[in-house]
Task: inverse folding
């Protein structure tokens, strides 16, 4: 990619730096986070967003938290780590990658202390930075593998609809849904992508269009309410989205509007694909009914580009995600392989393989 969504700068005393996605596409600026509080704010306000990217960002947040642990009292350092992990986990509740990455950081600290005699705080901080970097690198590799596994589904001459942004900006690598498109493009397949604008925060219009245009992929922006018409006209032959959390039975939480697209796709006999890395599966959540859905400020719906579009005092409902039933999903494309007609057994089998 021509840009890096997020990275750690320097050694253990360094800091994470991330593309401030609130400013795109007007400005490409890096945001430096020097405290867990700043990082929490960046996640909450969507400066960094997308399930895998917020997981990586949170892991870097733990490295920042450890910079505050001053004494060589490791028990104190671990409790400071756990406190920060609990705090960062509350920034956004739906994407499981966030708590997955934080759990991994906690486990890393526990294991490192248990397995090493006489460790210093500096040793522990180094181990945690190396774990966070590993989470970041692994995400990059998982994106690549999703692209390779999914590109087979893209046929020359086809039209594909995507929703929100499941691209490089949402991960540490090439994205999930968009990684498939990048891989197909690299193989000289010719296709057209229809991009839902994705109200209320316009991740499709602002971010996916920005990414695809830079990559030279033929992309057309549509309003969210146009998808059904384009399907009826035969312009869309497949839908590919990302995921924020996939329950054990395959029910999938993703950006609000995804569920409606799955119904439209079913109605028009169009395959509906979800692309996601292993870190997005949550086998402890049995079905989509148990996935917590983030509710966001009503002002995001009541305003457009900073201008109020609803009357003062209007009642507003603003869930950030919805759940697509597994039965509406043709296949889930993961870094480990493709799960057709996903269900509990097939998912468990693929993930433990
Ligand atoms: O609110 P956002 O922008 O974080 O929502 C992002 C999505 O819904 C993405 O589709 C999902 O996180 C997958 S990203 C690879």
Result:
């Amino acid at each position: 990619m021509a840009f890096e969504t997020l990275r750690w700068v320097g050694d253990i005393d360094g800091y994470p730096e991330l593309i401030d996605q609130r400013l795109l596409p007007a400005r490409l600026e890096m945001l430096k986070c020097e405290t867990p509080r700043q990082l929490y704010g960046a996640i909450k306000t969507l400066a960094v967003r997308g399930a895998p990217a917020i997981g990586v960002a949170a892991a870097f947040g733990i490295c920042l938290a450890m910079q505050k642990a001053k004494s060589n009292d490791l028990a104190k350092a671990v409790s400071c780590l756990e406190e920060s992990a609990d705090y960062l986990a509350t920034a956004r509740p739906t994407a499981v990658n966030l708590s997955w990455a934080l759990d991994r950081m906690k486990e890393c600290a526990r294991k490192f202390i248990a397995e090493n005699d006489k460790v210093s705080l500096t040793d522990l901080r180094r181990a945690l930075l190396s774990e966070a970097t590993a989470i970041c690198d692994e995400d990059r590799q998982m994106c690549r593998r999703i692209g390779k596994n999914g590109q087979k589904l893209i046929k020359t001459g086809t039209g594909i609809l995507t929703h929100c942004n499941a691209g490089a900006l949402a991960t540490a690598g090439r994205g999930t849904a968009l990684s498939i498109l990048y891989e197909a493009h690299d193989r000289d397949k010719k296709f057209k992508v229809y991009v839902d604008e994705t109200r209320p925060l316009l991740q499709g219009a602002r971010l996916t269009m920005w990414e695809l245009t830079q990559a030279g992929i033929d992309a057309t922006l549509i309003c969210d309410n146009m998808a059904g018409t384009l399907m009826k006209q035969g312009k869309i032959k497949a839908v590919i989205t990302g995921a924020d959390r996939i329950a054990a039975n395959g029910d999938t939480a993703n950006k609000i509007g995804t569920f409606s697209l799955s119904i439209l796709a079913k109605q028009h006999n169009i395959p509906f694909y979800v692309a996601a890395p292993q870190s997005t599966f949550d086998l402890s959540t049995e079905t989509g009914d148990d996935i917590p859905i983030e509710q966001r400020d009503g002002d995001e719906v009541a305003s457009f580009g900073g201008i109020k579009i609803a009357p003062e005092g209007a009642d507003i409902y603003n869930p950030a995600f919805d759940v697509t039933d597994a039965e509406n999903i043709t296949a889930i494309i993961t870094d480990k392989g493709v799960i057709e007609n996903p269900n509990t057994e097939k998912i468990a089998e693929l993930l433990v393989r």
